[in-house]
């Protein structure tokens, strides 16, 4: 009997799938209807802005659109690609993603002795949070640039820029809160593995045997943390990619 494939969900991102596979999140929890959840996230300021925007779309009394500058989608795609590669290399290789920003390198997977369980994860938390902050700063700036360029294009382009700004304001706080759980979830996994490691250290000392190395379990965890950050990068870039794709003639008709 052929198994029916589950319907694709809007929330089924590479980041969520990866965290679910690693047991860091429970993907079995029903997410609910996207439209209803989005309505729940709107406060009165967002609702007013969205209602005002809707009132301007296809307004028969709106003044005729003036001639606007043509936006070069090729240039935007090139800039998008440059930013993506810079952030990927920063996460994987520890390079500087943009002028004026610091290098953030992965801490050594071999923990220094003596190990303090209360502070051992701090360098890895700083690695994760530091890259998240850099991604947020760089991508938010590029997103604003894209909207500025769209605002110089046709009426549909300008409307898209306005709508994107509204939804960014709606989702920014929830996005930051949810993505902030990544470091916390990895800390729980780290603490569990470290507890077992400390037990092995005690047993090795009592048996006068060589101390076990933390790299055997911490190395894979570091690799998973990089993978999670790369998946988060893809997630953060999706709105920008949507704006760039909207510049194609088949997506938004010229006016």
Give the gist of this structure.
This protein is an all-alpha fold and 255 residues long.
User: How widely separated are the two ends?
Assistant: 52 Å
Give the helix/strand class. mainly alpha
Largest sheet: none
Order of helices and strands: HHHHHHHH
Bulk shape: elongated
Computed Rg: 23 Å
Q: pLDDT average, as an integer?
A: 81
**Which stretches of 5+ consecutive residues score pLDDT under 50?**
1-11, 249-255
- % residues in beta strands: under 5%
Number of helices: 8
State the helicity in percent bands. 55-70%
Count of individual beta strands = 0
Outline the structure in words.
With 255 residues, the protein is mostly helical. It has a domain at 69-105 and 116-245. Helices cover 63% and strands 0% of the residues. The protein contains eight helices and no strands. It has helices spanning 14-21, 34-41, 44-56, 73-93, 122-150, 155-179, 181-206, 215-245. Helix 4 (73-93) runs antiparallel to helix 8 (215-245). The longest helix has 31 residues, at 215-245. The radius of gyration is 23 Å and the shape is elongated. Residues 1-11 and 249-255 have low confidence and may be disordered.
Q: Keywords for this structure?
A:
mainly alpha; 0% strand; disordered N terminus; disordered C terminus
Write the layout of secondary structure elements.
Layout: H1 14-21, H2 34-41, H3 44-56, H4 73-93, H5 122-150, H6 155-179, H7 181-206, H8 215-245
